[in-house]
Design brief:
The protein is of the alpha/beta class. Helices cover about 35% and strands about 20% of the residues. It folds into two domains: about 260 residues, Nitrilase/N-carbamoyl-D-aminoacid amidohydrolase, CATH 3.60.110.10; about 260 residues, Rossmann fold. Helix 5 links the parallel strand 10 and strand 11. Helix 7 packs across helix 8 and helix 7 packs across helix 13. The longest helix is centred in the last third of the chain and has 22 residues.
Length: about 550
């Protein structure tokens, strides 16, 4: 007896394509006792508003019928939305559907809205406690957060399995759509291991891989034996199908073939996967970005080149009269290191033309943030013109630290179709850039080591407006990620006036964050999932 783990990349809304992918893998796995696909494999995850349309659910039902018909002699367990016909509660269940030789059994998710609060808007939780019988084996089927609460640092084993244990299952199966969260893989593995230890049952965990909307699914499916060791596993960030012999589940073998990547290796792979799937799943192939000579745009270009191919990423250098010579030379060096096309388009003349146009209104007023923002918006106009003319998708290069405190220009450097590092703090931008350069200089070291500056006025530095990034990021982490109060942050040793200034900036710039490009989510609390009121409220 063997079980097949299908760790696949699905396209949200492409029911036909996902169906054919599922059928192809199932037919290639003929002879398996059970072929296991991930949570919401049929429709892709997260499907969100698509789930409210009857035609969408009709297509899912039709696809399930076709899978059952074309794979009649192959036992399949696949994630899909199923109608709730009880007349009570939400109209759908998040389900795992078992199909084999005309039989169909549905297992419904109970714990909703833990990893993704939107889930509870569409699905009804289920209290049913059914067990799947495959031959002489009994499987406890769980879905996503039925296994654990992975919404934050305090991860707890769910009591869902408690409810299934009276039926004495031989093993536990969890199909999931667990998104990538930086430095979370070890935590996830530990929860699964603790589940095995608690219930003394082997466990099969099958996760999605790929990116959809702002979520990135990292794969890392695995199998635990009775001894709570990982006895087999699938790699992170790769599409893989693997057969696992049932006897392996009762062996004392310990597998070392799944190494959890380091923080920056996993972050690098996640962002590349996020870029690649964003482009491929929408039929895009080429990107453009403004390359300033600074570290943010350098990192985004390096990631984009790895995801799309060097030749498919165009850099546009847009120096002003305030740009230093090394900014242009650093940007050119990076483009040459990557082998990517680039253009230099100075904005000095455009800037002066706009100043002249506005001079009757601005006469006698000093140079201030208005003129700084003009430069950023001129650059945005040029970048969007290139995007429109050649079809290259504009990548945004703002980081999470800047987004948090509003250190960016609406309709200027905040524009773009995808925010690649909008969930990456500046200190991690530095860390990831150094990791990329660990073997050879790809990003010029001068770009990494120089003092950060927007270069929108003479001798400008980021620290003219903000604390040093290690200090700023430490405060932001406590306020944004840990939901700490100003007093609690001050109690950790930070200056009270500085803490209050930073928090005021975060709260006052919510209106800007509502208008940013889609952000690749890599943290517990990305701004794309933040639900905060707009206003200058006092904490």
């Amino acid at each position: 007896m063997k079980v097949t783990l299908a760790q696949l990349d699905y396209v949200v809304g492409d029911i036909e394509g996902n169906k054919e992918k599922i059928i192809a893998v199932a037919q290639q796995s003929a002879g398996s006792s059970l072929v296991v696909f991930a949570e919401m494999a049929l429709c892709g995850c997260p499907s969100y508003g698509l789930l409210q349309y009857d035609w969408f659910i009709d297509k899912c039902e039709k696809a399930l019928d076709e899978i059952a018909s074309r794979c009649d002699n192959i036992p399949i367990l696949v994630g899909a939305p199923i109608r709730n016909n009880s007349g009570k509660g939400k109209p759908l269940f998040n389900a795992a559907v078992y199909m084999f030789q005309g039989q169909r059994k549905v297992f419904k998710k109970k714990q909703l809205g833990i990893s993704d609060r939107y889930e509870a808007e569409y699905f009804e939780p289920s209290d049913e406690n059914d067990i799947l019988k495959v031959g002489c084996h009994k499987f406890a089927i769980t879905i996503g957060d039925d296994m654990c609460n992975n919404s934050g640092d305090d991860i707890l084993i769910s009591n869902r399995v408690d409810e299934l244990m009276p039926q004495q299952p031989d093993l536990i199966v969890n199909i999931a759509a667990d998104r990538f969260i930086c430095q979370h893989a070890e935590q996830r593995r530990n929860v699964l291991r603790q589940t095995v230890l608690k219930y003394e049952r082997p466990l099969i965990y099958v996760n999605q891989v790929g990116a959809s909307t702002d979520y990135i699914y990292d794969g890392g499916s695995m199998v635990f034996g009775y001894n709570a060791y990982v006895v087999d596993s699938l790699p992170f960030f790769e599409t893989v199908v693997k057969n696992v012999p049932m006897e392996l589940l009762i062996s004392m073998k310990r597998s070392d073939n799944q190494e959890i990547p380091s923080k920056y290796e996993s972050l690098y792979n996640a962002l590349i996967l996020g870029i690649r799937d964003f482009f491929q799943k929408q039929g895009f192939s080429k990107a453009v970005l403004g390359l300033s000579g600074g570290i943010d745009s350098a990192l985004v270009m390096t990631l984009a080149a790895a995801a799309l191919g060097n030749e498919n990423v165009t850099a546009i250098l847009l120096p002003s009269e305030f740009s230093t010579g090394h900014s242009v030379s650093d940007a050119e060096a990076l483009a040459k290191n990557l082998g990517s096309p680039y253009y230099i388009i100075p904005i000095k003349d455009s800037f002066h033309t706009l100043q002249d146009t506005l001079s009757p209104v601005f006469k006698g007023l000093p140079f201030d943030v208005t003129e700084e923002n003009l430069q950023a918006r001129i650059r945005a106009v040029i970048l969007m013109a290139y995007s429109n003319k050649f079809g290259n998708i504009l990548l945004n290069t703002s980081n999470k630290s800047e987004a948090a405190v509003g250190y960016g220009t609406l309709y200027g450097d905040m524009c773009g179709s995808l925010s690649v590092i909008g969930d990456v703090y500046k200190t991690d931008v530095f860390g990831l850039s150094r990791w990329i350069n660990r073997e050879s200089e790809i990003i010029p070291w001068h770009t990494i080591e120089k003092v950060p500056s927007a270069e929108l006025r003479p001798d400008q530095k980021d620290t003219d407006s903000l604390p040093d990034y290690p200090v700023l990021d430490a405060m932001l982490y406590q306020y944004v990620e840990c939901s700490q109060s100003p007093d609690a942050i001050v109690a950790q040793g930070f200056d009270s006036a500085l803490v209050n200034k930073v928090i005021r900036l975060v709260n006052a710039n919510e209106f800007k964050r509502k208008q940013v490009a889609p952000i690749l989510s890599v943290s517990y609390k990305p701004f794309s999932r933040r639900l905060m009121p707009i206003g200058r409220f006092v904490v």
